[in-house]
Write a structure and sequence with these properties.
The chain is mainly α. The chain is built from nine helices and no strands. Helix 6 crosses helix 8.
């Protein structure tokens, strides 16, 4: 029992250490042995995995339990795949520019940015749940999730830029031009994340649709956002247009029915008149 409590306390202190780094940028560059570095990186990975999985569950819960579990795994995969795809280019470019930062320090900084991003995103979960419970529109929730990721991503990227600036100005182990290059790299990272997310869709599925592991249709992320905005702006007008059209169509149908009936009466009257004239001639 004592050993379990000790283990839990050690894990808790390790997780707290991850968040303490946000308050002291210099802690990125403290001397750590391999065990301490490995433990810190592991704690960062655990926090990112937990927060992204939980937020994915919140996203998918709008549709069903199965969709929420799948969305949790998808969102976690999205974060780590973006890191694994983009980190090699970041590391190579920094070495070419003459950076003296170690590989562990770069990993600390990048993962810390993603820890902050996922932490801010999960903090918005109660707001998302509120809109889901109170009957939030599907397209509105789509845009809400996009705005949450943009907002949290800005803070995560700012944290990474501040850490690199500190390494440049205080520690003199990072080139000045490297900060500007890193900003460009973050833009590339964002586009990579968007592309991966588009291919992993749907995270949030409409209630009227059946469960789908992956969705297949043409288009891209940007046209989907524009379409969602249009659906939020035009629903009331479109409904009114549909009602007006249906009413006018009913009136037109009624008029056509009246016209057809009148025409038939005239034809019948004309036919009866012609028949009477023919019978009179024959009698004569």
């Amino acid at each position: 029992m004592v050993s379990l409590i000790t283990f839990a306390m050690e894990k808790t202190s390790g997780l707290i250490e991850v968040f303490k780094i946000f308050q002291n940028i210099e802690s990125y560059f403290e001397e750590r042995n391999k065990d301490q570095s490995r433990r810190l990186i592991l704690n960062q990975v655990l926090i990112i995995s937990a927060f992204t999985f939980l937020y994915g569950i919140v996203m998918g819960s709008y549709h069903s339990f199965l969709q929420s579990i799948v969305a949790g795994f998808k969102l976690t995969f999205l974060f780590y795949s973006a890191i694994l795809i983009c980190f090699p280019s970041f590391y190579v470019i920094q070495q070419v520019l003459g950076s003296k930062m170690t590989l562990r320090q770069m990993v600390f900084i990048i993962l810390s940015g993603f820890v902050l991003t996922s932490a801010i995103a999960i903090s918005f979960a109660p707001i998302v749940i509120l809109f889901q419970v109170t009957g939030g529109n599907y397209h509105f929730l789509q845009l809400l999730h996009v705005l949450i990721f943009i907002f949290s991503g800005i803070f995560g990227m700012k944290l990474m830029v501040d850490a690199l600036k500190f390494a440049c100005e205080k520690k003199v182990i990072y080139p000045h031009i490297g900060v500007d290059v890193f900003r460009i790299w973050m833009i590339i990272l964002a586009f990579v994340g968007i592309q991966i997310a588009w291919n992993l869709r749907p995270f949030l599925c409409n209630k009227t649709e059946e469960f789908k592991l992956f969705r297949k249709y043409e288009g891209n992320f940007y046209t989907a956002i524009i379409y969602s905005v249009q659906q939020l702006v035009k629903p009331a007008n479109s409904d009114q247009d549909i009602e007006v059209k249906s009413e006018s169509q009913k009136q037109n149908n009624t008029k056509s029915q009246i016209t057809d009936t009148t025409l038939l009466k005239l034809l019948n009257k004309h036919y009866n008149t012609d028949t009477a004239i023919t019978l009179t001639i024959r009698r004569k």
